[in-house]
Amino acid sequence: MAKLSRILVIAGSDSSGGAGIEADQRVLTAHECYTLTATTALTAQNTLGVQAIHIIPTEFVRKQINAGLEDVGADVVKIGMLASAETVTMVSEVLRQHEVPVVVLDPVFANPLWIHLLMNLFLTCFRFFVEVMISTSGFQLLPYEAVRLVRTSLLPITTILTPNIPEAILLLRDSGVSVHDPESLDDAIQLAKQLHGLGPKHILLKGGHLPLTAAWQRSKNIEDASIIVDVLYDGTSVTLVESEFSRSKNTHGTGCSLASAIAANLANGMETVRAVRHACWFVEAGIKTSVDLGKGHGPINHFHSVYSLPFAPGHFLDYVLERPDVQPLWHSFTKHEFVTRMADATLPAEKFKHYLIQDYLYLVSGFSTFSLRVSLAKPESKVHFARSNALAAYKNSTMEGISASAKIVLHIEREMALHLDYCASFGLSKEDIECQKESQGMSFECIASKGSTDQPLPPAKACVAYSRYILDVGQSEDWLALQVALSPCLIGYGAIAKRLHRDEKSVRTGNQYWKWIENYVAKDYSEAVKLGSATSVCPDIEQIFNHKLELLETHMRNVSRNRMEELVRIFITATELEIGFWDMGLKEE
């Protein structure tokens, strides 16, 4: 992220986690903002109400604010519950001193649970609320004298004020303006305009206390309530933001969540109308996707649009290989009897020859996947693994990715040269190998005839299945899917060779297969694996497997959960086909 937006939240703490600073932090995290806090009060509360309040000394709050602004700084300050008249005065002074550019003020005068009750009662108890300003459980959240200080000292430096209707009326009546409970949307618009005269640049009057019917008339009962309309006024223009009326009881913390979402959107560069509209949608979705918690009014879901990766950055490969649906297959692949018998030098030579021939054909077939011009090559010399990587280059849209794939193809070419040299030590020439097609039931008849290529044997099931699967993924899926399909081979061979090379039980002296193991821990193969992970060349195989596949790591962070599962399924299938390749070698099928 090029820029990390900074938000200073000055508010009270909600021990239930549904509102206050706790909710603010979740909202800001969901919007990829960095949160600084200055806690004004501690509350003991749950979904049923407030049980106790401990006001933080004003000077300590001042030190919290100064500590944050003098070091990290803030793009936006969001203000919630201030708890005392002294704190209100101090906050207005400090914000002026630091010349904070944007202030979002959510005027918390009373327990939001009481506000929710008022919505259901359609304001029948409003006058009582104004007079006492206490929570349903008897706790006053802001002294009456502090309301005037909010109006006179904070509103003039406020960028956006986000009151609900009771809070708006309270502020206006404190200023001497005669207002009545709004009976229509027009009344609410007029209320917003009157409130703008108190100093804020923008007023967002929340319409939760004035539910409307589908025809935009005041609802007479809960049953015909259909929409909620918030009124945004900037001194000139009125913008109406419509939301669906929710009958959910999980509305605790909606006010502070909305203000924090607006603050985040402004800090992230949105203009005011768009910032407000997106914040309203955010809260609406939070209510719709909420989960019941507690016995009363539960919190909204602040993370409805946040995608959580199932793996920590740098550990995608670990995540995949440790999955229950992958782990046993990976064990079978990397610790297969075929490779175990190579390590202890008990694998019959004829079985290994059969494997060498099929592996060469697979490599050749892969060669031309890097290009769609492979049809020019002879069918017998199409190499599946290189073909697949060539196709990966074709599917990549960046020069860096194309170059990386091309380099892997060149490494495969060198690997094939090593492969042929190694085959020669078993009496297999290039002509001997190429006279065979990918065969099943390999009997080495062609080899025995030393060059007779009259009727090559039919293709081997394992080699054909694997190579065609890779090519099919390359043709029908995207670039990332093809990279995943190629990964078990690229990663697995290196992992197998590294394990066998380090195993003290492996037979080194007189083991005709030891050269094969050494080839796959050599610098050249390490470079190919490293290129497959889109990082700089590193000759240390241990370091390579510590870094894992950075190429996949980077792209896997941007896929959905469903797509992640689809890609893992491709990895599983390719691993199963790798196991089949070893089985083919043992059975000479």
Automatic annotation (TrEMBL):
Entry keywords, A to Z: Kinase, Transferase
GO CC annotations, alphabetized: cytosol
One matching Pfam family: TENA_THI-4
Domain Pyridoxamine kinase/Phosphomethylpyrimidine kinase: 14-110, 132-301
Residue stretches making up the Thiaminase-2/PQQC domain: 324-375, 383-446, 459-530
GO biological process entries: thiamine biosynthetic process
InterPro entries recorded: Haem_Oase-like_multi-hlx, HMP/HMP-P_kinase_dom, PM/HMP-P_kinase-1, Ribokinase-like, Thiaminase-2/PQQC
GO molecular function, one term: phosphomethylpyrimidine kinase activity
Protein's name according to its UniProt entry: Trifunctional hydroxymethylpyrimidine kinase/phosphomethylpyrimidine kinase/thiaminase
Organism: Emydomyces testavorans
